[in-house]
Amino acid sequence: MLSDFDLHLFNEGAHDRLYEKLGAHPLKLNGSSGTHFATWAPNAREVSVIGDFNGWNPRTNPLSRRASGVWSGF
Q1: How much is the pLDDT for 1?
Q2: What's the CATH number for 4-73?
């Protein structure tokens, strides 16, 4: 998951392990297993994770916009 400190380092161009934060990463959150997704899309109006698992519906799994154009969700 992306912390505020991760976003600070990202903004400074000093995050040397960003590959651990952006992309798709399986994890357990509050007892639920799933996948955390994060991407940098500063000009996007919305970002969603779509696939066979949700019937290709872009409204089912939208990501939330964070600082600096980073979008993330679980």
Answers
A1: 87
A2: 2.60.40.10
CB of 28 closer than 8 Å to CB of 18: no
How do the domains of the chain map onto residue ranges? 4-73
SS3 60: coil
Q: What is the DSSP code (8-state) at residue 45? A: S
Q: How many residues does the chain have?
A: 74
- State how far the Cα of 16 lies from the Cα of 33, in Å rounded to an integer: 27
CA distance 59 to 74: 14
Q: Which tens digit of pLDDT belongs to each residue from 34-67? A: 999 999 999 999 999 999 999 999 999 999 999 8
